[in-house]
Amino acid sequence: MHYPLTATRRIDLVVTELAVIEPMTDGLMLKETAPGIRVQDVLEATDATLIVPEQVPEIVIPA
Length: 63
Known about the structure:
The protein is of the alpha+beta class. Helices cover 11% and strands 27% of the residues.
């Protein structure tokens, strides 16, 4: 499957309703999950292979 080009340069961060993911030299790193979302939820919803650190914090949304 091919998708259209949507940017002219490399992205620095991917932010979705489920998580924050950062492109790294060795792959895509799961940085944070949305409130109430488990790491497993993100993995099940993502086709890409993610690097998952031992601790993945929940996104803090200011009140």
